[in-house]
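Q: what sequence does this backbone want?
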């Protein structure tokens, strides 16, 4: 009997020690707000249609995540992140409907001296660069920069286009304020068209990107380059090239920021040129101790002959009730030229040649 008790105690100590080696953190964002958008819905029967309702993830995408690490010794750690989208305003759990929607999910190794290598679905360097230079934290409903990046078809942005499947990443340690990062996403084409022998290989649509960030005191600067090899979305499987310069400086009484990016895409099937440029400026002014007035402007211009563009501006206010809970309200207006290549704005209330306005008010809690 005594031997059994000792054996159970030893087993408990061993399993407890093994479990303690892996530290797991549960984190997330619960964000919901009211959204009212005016504009046009595309289609002959859907003119003058507005949107009014409660949306999830207005200021920041609602999510739940799990991240952890195991100390392997000599400064080496096994690390992982599993993060999934939440839709707070519907009868849905993790994801949409019955589909699990991952924002990012990866596993890797991290060295204090050499940096981190990871495999899975991950953010490209353009994601962080865009977020750090956005006055409204890359809100999908309110950010002029993100609204125009999405209309431009850019992978240098802070939404779905910047999350790459089948990817391997490297992130360097921070040295003298500099951090370097790189990503390669394998194309892994397995479509019927590929199998039919139309010249498309599993290497088509592979995307690689490199980024360099400098952060020191109130200064932050990002430089990013991303390229999609032999894109199957172009007429002759051409490469798509993008680059971005972004920066911000915090003067304490005001934080200012600006971005400029260029996308070279010589066209989808046919001869259409989808090359464009997006630039933006923004400012954050602290007020009332825990509040901030936020303002931003962005402009999108297309290279195609006789095509116009879009511009967007935003004015917003955020107020921190605590370290984790924030109230917010924003107003964003986006104007589309009649000959712009792609309409910019909120959801389905946007259209070429029309003005789209969006008002939001909500609450965000992080945990």
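A:
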């Amino acid at each position: 009997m005594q031997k059994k008790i000792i054996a159970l105690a030893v087993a408990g100590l061993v399993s407890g020690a093994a479990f303690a080696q892996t530290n797991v953190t549960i984190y997330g964002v619960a964000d919901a707000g009211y959204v009212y958008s005016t504009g046009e819905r595309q289609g002959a029967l859907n003119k003058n249609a507005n949107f009014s309702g409660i949306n999830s993830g207005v200021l920041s995408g609602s999510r739940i995540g799990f991240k952890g690490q195991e100390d392997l010794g000599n400064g080496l750690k096994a690390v992982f992140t599993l993060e999934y989208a939440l839709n707070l305003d519907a009868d849905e759990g993790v994801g949409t409907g019955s589909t699990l929607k991952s924002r990012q999910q990866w596993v890797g190794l991290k060295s204090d001296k050499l940096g981190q290598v990871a495999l899975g679905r991950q953010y490209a360097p353009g994601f962080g660069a865009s977020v750090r230079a956005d006055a409204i934290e890359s809100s999908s409903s309110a950010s002029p920069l993100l609204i125009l990046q999405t209309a431009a078809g850019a992978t240098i942005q802070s939404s779905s286009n910047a999350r790459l499947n089948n990817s391997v990443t490297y992130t360097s340690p921070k040295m003298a304020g500099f951090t370097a990062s790189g990503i390669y996403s394998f194309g892994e084409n397995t479509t019927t068209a590929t199998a039919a022998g139309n010249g498309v290989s599993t290497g088509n649509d592979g995307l690689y990107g490199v980024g360099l960030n400098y952060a020191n005191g109130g200064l932050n600067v990002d430089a990013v380059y991303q390229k999609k090899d032999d894109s199957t979305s172009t007429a002759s499987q051409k490469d798509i090239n993008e680059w971005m310069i972004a920066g911000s400086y915090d003067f304490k009484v005001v934080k200012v920021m600006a971005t400029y990016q260029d996308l070279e895409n010589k066209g989808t099937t046919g001869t259409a040129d989808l090359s464009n440029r997006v630039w933006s400026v923004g400012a954050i002014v602290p007020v009332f101790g825990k509040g901030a007035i936020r303002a931003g402007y962005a402009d999108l211009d297309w290279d195609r002959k006789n095509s116009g563009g879009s511009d967007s501006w935003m004015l917003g206010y955020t107020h921190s009730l605590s370290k984790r809970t924030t109230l917010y309200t924003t107003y964003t207006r986006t104007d589309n030229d009649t000959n712009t290549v792609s309409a910019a704005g909120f959801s389905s209330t946007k259209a070429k040649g029309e003005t789209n306005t969006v008002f939001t008010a909500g609450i965000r809690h992080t945990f």
